[in-house]
Write a sequence for this structure.
């Protein structure tokens, strides 16, 4: 959870690093100008930080601007990603259209979401996504299920039961086709980079 200015910058740098562009002022400006989803993530992080965690009067104007930009981009790109969602370091969203995330969901570090993904609640319980999880297009995750660490969820899967660590889940309803496998290769995990 973002608690201070240093953590906010670390979160944004980790999101930038996940794009594979490196982390510098130049790459930030380039990614912000050319990558619409990165732009959304930046405003999500800023709006979450200034609106939920720092309700000080001195930040009122910036909190207002951040929330307006976040809502504008959320509407423009059809992304329903509430500010109350707890998201770890290194969030990556590919193609980002039609993304719906329940407000009580928890998403771990180095998660990758793609288009048409839904994280929905059932009986007031929302999904908990572990670290290094790749969620493919069209996936629906329903209820208080726990997705373990280092998991790949195949396209158009319906996940309504827990998925253990180091596995691949596919199908409707989901079934695990690999119970143990080596970590899938992703060069740009946040932990591989020192800020």
């Amino acid at each position: 959870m973002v608690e201070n200015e240093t953590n906010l910058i670390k979160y944004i740098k980790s999101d930038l690093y996940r794009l594979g562009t490196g982390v510098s002022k130049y790459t930030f400006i380039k990614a912000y100008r050319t990558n619409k989803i990165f732009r959304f993530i930046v405003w999500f992080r800023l709006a979450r930080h200034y609106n939920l965690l720092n309700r000080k009067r001195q930040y009122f104007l910036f909190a207002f601007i951040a929330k307006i930009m976040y809502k504008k981009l959320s509407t423009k790109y059809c992304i329903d990603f509430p500010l109350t969602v707890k998201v770890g370091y290194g969030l990556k969203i590919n193609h980002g259209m039609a993304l719906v995330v329940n407000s009580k969901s928890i998403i771990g570090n180095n998660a990758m979401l793609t288009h048409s993904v839904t994280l929905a609640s059932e009986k007031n319980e929302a999904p908990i996504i572990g670290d290094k999880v790749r969620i493919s297009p069209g996936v629906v995750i329903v209820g208080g299920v726990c997705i373990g660490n280092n998991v790949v969820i195949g396209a158009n899967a319906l996940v309504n039961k827990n998925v253990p660590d180091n596995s691949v889940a596919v199908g409707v309803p989901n079934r695990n086709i690999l119970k143990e496998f080596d970590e899938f290769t992703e060069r740009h995990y946040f932990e591989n980079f020192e800020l």
Remarks:
- Helices lie at 5-17, 25-34, 36-53, 60-76.
- Residues 79-182 form a domain with the UDP N-Acetylglucosamine Acyltransferase; domain 1 fold (CATH 2.160.10.10).
